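Why predict the complex rather than its parts? Because the way molecules touch one another can change local conformation, and only a joint prediction can capture that. The input here totals 227 residues.
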Amino acid sequence: EVQLEESGGGLVQPGGSLRLSCAASGFTFSSYSMNWVRQAPGKGLEWVSYISSSSSTIYYADSVKGRFTISRDNAENSLYLHMNSLRAEDTAVYYCVRDLYGDYGSVFDIWGQGTLVTVSS
Amino acid sequence: DIQMTQSPSSLSASVGDRVTITCRASQSISSYLNWYQQKPGKAPKLLIYGASSLQSGVPPRISGSGSGTDFTLTISSLQPEDFATYYCQQSYSTPTFGQGTKVEIK
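Output of the joint prediction:
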């Protein structure tokens, strides 16, 4: 079964740091681009970051650029999001998402269950 | 960034109704438009990609159409499991989502 499982969320103070992890299984992780997408409580979906299969191409939303870093370890079938200088507006459920990137651009076909990040003092 | 606007923001419908949700892009995105369904407390699920291609496992009562700036998601006969929030997403450039359309039981 194709699965993505996030971990690492929790409560952090403003200005703090956190590292999210995503463990992939059931598919050839190294063949797929991956993304992080977040959803603030009661709000809509916001794309956060993209990384290509070989890590050669990386993109960030303007709202997190310079503060967040996406990375992956294909040997460990894992995706990461390092988050620094966290703000209250970063409070959200963070989803690890597989990307079919191809003829139709970034299509998000497999989603993890999400991990909640709460930034509060 | 390309802005995506969905309408309506919410709607009430009955089982068996035909439901249509519209998504408009702030500039032409060709057919780079995808639709997702999200139920409370769950992750989104891909329904439609490339404006009209049905994702594997999605029932054929769900369909998508459109190109350029105007797109539509149609559920031909609403079923109990279809009550959820639906999001469009453009994949022409840096991904952006519509604000969502909540489909509620009348």
